[in-house]
């Protein structure tokens, strides 16, 4: 009769097979540890040099770009170049309208009859074309480009730099801070480029009937203009007149009309940047973003908003031009009259108050809005083209 199995017969005794299995498990564990250690070393090496042996994930998913350093030299020159070319492109598009607007604002005696109607703009353009040819529509444009490239470059660069200081956190993104950033950027740019603007206006103010002046003669004329006080009542007052005139001639004449320019630039540049940025935020609203925005490019800086589609970017810029032009136009009219003050009348320089009184006496309050219609026709596409070109060049330059 067979013996029943005991409890001990079911307990496995360590033998050669069990020892082999234990050694295999230990070897596998060691291999796993080595593999994990090598993987960690490889990841550390790739962090130091991403170009070496990228993983599958790194090959398919673009690496996030770090936040852009707006104070770096690379960002500064790229931003300045983008802004300069944006300004040149915008001014070239509207150069004929700009010439007509200057003639209207400065009350050129040969073109006063065309003011006050939409048809007058076309008639004025035809008159210029008939008298001076196609080049007459771009008279003064070379001086415009010489001025607008540094002006636009400084303006956009200054806005980016000032904005980075004033709005250094997302919670600081307020309309007031945007307005201040834009206003300070405009003042900075106009301070460095105003003499070129004065020369451009003088060139554009002249017509063939007046006879053309060279750039050199215009500069000499501006340099030697004086601000005369009231005529002396006796010969004994001549010395005091000379004393009053002497310190106010020369290089200071190239800043004729600078005060109203500053006053006008504060609302113009401020409202321009504020309106553009606000319109851009509205157009990027999640509910309509799929129709108004483009996919983010690979080399876009971290945290940069998605670029707007062409029509949306042009729309935002056009609204910015419309609002800023309306707010600042009366001061712009005063500035133009002060700039050409030496080319009309007795050649003496007028102050802001004197110029405003002269405009009111000639045309009334409507005189402050002469040429506003052509201002809209010119400024809306100009500002739209400027912002559009600037944003697209920033994308191309990777900033």
Automatic annotation (TrEMBL):
<dbReference type="GO" id="GO:0005743">
    <property type="term" value="C:mitochondrial inner membrane"/>
</dbReference>
<keyword id="KW-0677">Repeat</keyword>
<feature type="region of interest" description="Disordered">
    <location>
        <begin position="1"/>
        <end position="65"/>
    </location>
</feature>
<feature type="repeat" description="Solcar">
    <location>
        <begin position="308"/>
        <end position="396"/>
    </location>
</feature>
<keyword id="KW-0812">Transmembrane</keyword>
<dbReference type="InterPro" id="IPR002167">
    <property type="entry name" value="GDC-like"/>
</dbReference>
<dbReference type="InterPro" id="IPR018108">
    <property type="entry name" value="MCP_transmembrane"/>
</dbReference>
<dbReference type="InterPro" id="IPR002067">
    <property type="entry name" value="MCP"/>
</dbReference>
<feature type="transmembrane region" description="Helical">
    <location>
        <begin position="368"/>
        <end position="390"/>
    </location>
</feature>
<comment type="similarity">
    <text>Belongs to the mitochondrial carrier (TC 2.A.29) family.</text>
</comment>
<keyword id="KW-1133">Transmembrane helix</keyword>
<feature type="repeat" description="Solcar">
    <location>
        <begin position="74"/>
        <end position="165"/>
    </location>
</feature>
<keyword id="KW-0999">Mitochondrion inner membrane</keyword>
<dbReference type="GO" id="GO:0055085">
    <property type="term" value="P:transmembrane transport"/>
</dbReference>
<feature type="repeat" description="Solcar">
    <location>
        <begin position="173"/>
        <end position="282"/>
    </location>
</feature>
<dbReference type="InterPro" id="IPR023395">
    <property type="entry name" value="MCP_dom_sf"/>
</dbReference>
<comment type="function">
    <text>Mitochondrial transporter that mediates uptake of thiamine pyrophosphate (ThPP) into mitochondria.</text>
</comment>
<protein>
    <recommendedName>
        <fullName>Mitochondrial thiamine pyrophosphate carrier 1</fullName>
    </recommendedName>
</protein>
<keyword id="KW-0496">Mitochondrion</keyword>
<dbReference type="Pfam" id="PF00153">
    <property type="entry name" value="Mito_carr"/>
</dbReference>
<keyword id="KW-0472">Membrane</keyword>
<keyword id="KW-0813">Transport</keyword>
């Amino acid at each position: 009769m067979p013996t029943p199995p005991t409890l001990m017969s079911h307990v496995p005794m360590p033998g050669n097979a069990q020892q082999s299995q234990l050694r295999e498990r230990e070897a596998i564990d060691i291999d796993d540890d080595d593999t994990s250690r090598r993987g960690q070393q490889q990841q550390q090496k790739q962090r130091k040099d991403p170009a070496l042996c990228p993983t599958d994930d790194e090959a398919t998913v673009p690496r996030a770009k770090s936040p852009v350093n707006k104070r770096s030299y690379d960002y500064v020159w790229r931003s300045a170049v983008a802004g300069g070319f944006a300004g040149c492109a915008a001014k070239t598009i509207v150069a004929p309208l700009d010439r007509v607007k200057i003639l209207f604002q400065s009350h050129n005696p040969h073109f006063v009859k065309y003011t006050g109607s939409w048809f007058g703009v076309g008639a004025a353009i035809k008159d210029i074309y008939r008298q001076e040819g196609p080049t007459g529509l771009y008279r003064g444009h070379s001086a415009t480009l010489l001025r607008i490239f540094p002006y636009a470059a400084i303006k956009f660069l200054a806005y980016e730099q000032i904005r980075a200081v004033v709005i250094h956190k997302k919670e600081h993104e307020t309309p007031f801070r945007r307005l201040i950033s834009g206003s300070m950027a405009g003042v900075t740019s106009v301070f460095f480029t105003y003499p070129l603007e004065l020369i451009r206006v003088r060139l554009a103010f002249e017509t063939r009937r007046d006879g053309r002046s060279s750039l050199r003669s215009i500069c000499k004329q501006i340099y030697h203009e004086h601000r005369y006080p009231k005529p002396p009542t006796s010969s004994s007052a001549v010395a005091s007149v000379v004393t009053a005139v002497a310190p106010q001639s020369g290089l200071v004449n190239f800043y004729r009309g600078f005060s109203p320019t500053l006053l006008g630039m504060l609302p113009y540049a401020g409202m321009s940047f504020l309106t553009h940025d606000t319109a851009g935020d509205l157009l990027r609203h999640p509910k309509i973003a799929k129709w108004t925005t483009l996919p983010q490019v690979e080399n876009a800086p971290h945290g940069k908003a998605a670029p707007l589609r062409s029509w949306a970017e042009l729309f935002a810029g056009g609204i910015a031009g419309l609002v800023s032009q309306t707010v600042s136009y009366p001061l712009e009219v005063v500035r133009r009259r002060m700039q050409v003050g030496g080319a009309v009348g007795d050649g003496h320089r007028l102050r802001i108050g004197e110029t405003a009184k002269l405009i009111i006496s000639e045309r009334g309050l409507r005189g402050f809005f002469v040429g506003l219609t052509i201002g809209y026709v010119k400024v809306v596409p100009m500002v739209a083209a400027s912002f559009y070109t600037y944003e697209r060049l920033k994308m191309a330059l990777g900033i």
